[in-house]
Design brief:
The complex is a heterodimer. By secondary structure, chain A is an alpha/beta fold. Helix content of chain A is about 40%, strand content about 10%. In chain A, the strands form two sheets. Chain A has a five-stranded mixed beta sheet, sandwiched between helices. Chain A has a four-stranded parallel beta sheet with strand order 3-2-1-4, sandwiched between helices. Chain A is globular and about 75 Å long. Chain B is α+β, with helices and mostly antiparallel strands. Chain B has seven helices and four strands; from the N terminus they run ααααβααβββα. In chain B, helix 1 runs antiparallel to helix 2, helix 2 crosses helix 3 and helix 6 packs across helix 7. The longest helix of chain B has 17 residues. The chains are: A alpha/beta, B alpha+beta. Chains A and B meet through strand 3, strand 5, strand 9 and helix 14 of A and helix 2, helix 5 and strand 4 of B. The structure holds flavin mononucleotide. The site of flavin mononucleotide has 24 residues of chain A, from strand 4 and helix 17.
Amino acid sequence: MSTGLKILTAHLEDPELHTLAGYERHGGYGALRKTLREGLTPEKVQEEVKAANLRGRGGAGFPAGIKWGFLPKNTDKPIYLCINADEGEPGTFKDRLIMERNPHALIEGCLIACHAIKAKVCYIYIRGELLKCIKHVERAIEEARAKGLIGKNILGSGLDCEIHVHPGAGAYICGEEMSLIESLEGKPGQPRNKPPFPASVGLFNCPTIVNNVETIAYVPWIIQNSGQAFADLGSEKNGGLKIWGVSGHVKRPGLWELPMGITARQLIEDYAGGMRGPKKMKGYIPGGSSCPPLLGTEIDIPLDFENMKKAGTMLGTGCLTVFEEGVCTVRFAQRIAHFYEHESCGQCTPCREGTGWLYRNIKKLEHGEQLDGGLDLLESICNRIMGNTICALGDAAAMPIQGFLRRFGDEWAAHLGAGRCPIQG
Amino acid sequence: MSVPSLAFSATAMQRFETIVARYPHRQAALLPVLHLAQAEFGWISPEAMEYVGGLLDVPPVKVQHVASFYTMYNLKPVGRFHVQVCTNTSCWLTGGVEILEHLKAKLGVGNKGTTADGLFTLEEVECLASCGTAPAIQVNDLKDSEWPIRYHEGQTVASADALIDALRKRATEGGAA
Ligand SMILES: Cc1cc2nc3c(=O)[nH]c(=O)nc-3n(C[C@H](O)[C@H](O)[C@H](O)COP(=O)(O)O)c2cc1C
């Protein structure tokens, strides 16, 4: 089903791809020039992106074109575009590739997206730890500005657009869009209640669109080749290619750009070289630690937003974390639960208290202690967090635990009162 | 209120002006300016908070509220090399915990501890987005103005051990690695 076509990773073999000269050598900024030359209206660009079935690559899979349509039609306030480059979801390492190796694709996407949503300023919120990404994107911005691709009257078109990098400072929660906005305003990253959604009241209380790096980096290709062409590359309702990641216990962890709707079997066996050793695959997390895990036998489900939902999990970021037989899923989940306790921003009681409560009880279970109420206790903590918080971090902490209970319940039950971990000792 | 005893160098001040100009409100520059302050002063001391607050018209208590929310700001002095070992999912599966334990023993410190010679601070951290090249270690070098943060990926206990030795050598010989 893969035609072998690549978009964002097509010219990675060119060591200069991250420079303007390298990017332009491979046709870079052609989509921006086309937009300006042919006078494509914002409406036309939005139409193409809608037709592309471009689903948000930050984890939730919301159709990008539809999100852009939520902006107020008539506003006297400035509109902002914020690029979510906070890449912090455990298991996820794909946006780094774009920013380090092909940053101009992101910049060109930002320029076209800004035109489509009538934004004149775009902030790229990059995780502070990712210094190489920050440097490469900042340099790409400088190069593009020097060539008249960013700034006032872009290439003589009359369009203005500024792009700035905003470094994060270490907080997973800032990947959540409302928290990202607060953080951009120079505040602690504590999410705001929705509604109002950012499209009406976002950054500096102005209409704002937040999109993931990968989402926006695909926009130039869509404009060059049409939304329909992009849609045709993927599966139903899931347009295009995507950058897939595989890490964990596989022979060759890495990233590959392949169609939406590919299967975990193809990714793991054909690209990641299979398992690293003789042990069989016990399971995998499809798209970052917030997604409920699947069994090692559930690898023939098409990886797209609808099919993953049907399977009781989520596609998330499309970066798979694979683990082999012998790994204790309680101990693994304990590490994940610890992460959410650490990263809860503390604003909502169910999340602040619940994530710690979950972690402490999973830790007890891993030590083979009894739990008051058995495994139902864990289920009930999850249920008390789910849906009771301002942002989805609470859900993100609860869902994987529920998933582990569902898929590996026998193993979890065997820990109850066993005095030690029956799997890893 | 006391007069802050520290100030940005001329170069840092230039950088500060560039950053502030990016935003319609001065407070929005707080995160990047705190990074700048940390690069200049080594850590975010109460004086640094007061200084940054003065530059951005933000009360120092608000600066503190923000600085303490984010893990990258050091509210206490750290060693020259801030060695940060990821032990989250993919690193957990591929030996990150063993590396952390080895470095604790080698350096003789616990989590967030600093060696007596002030060279190393060791810390367990959350996912660094290096899952495809796990396990990963992030090393901040206070004296490296070009690359104050470097990732060391695909680590083993042996390579992490050698990394510490190389850093120590860099410190005694001066200059960057
Ligand atoms: C706790 C939490 C963390 C998140 N982290 C990220 C992230 O690191 N990167 C990202 O793009 N989206 C992240 N998201 C999703 C964003 O809230 C938002 O849906 C996304 O940036 C929208 O862009 P998209 O539609 O292009 O995917 C996170 C959400 C939550 C609840």
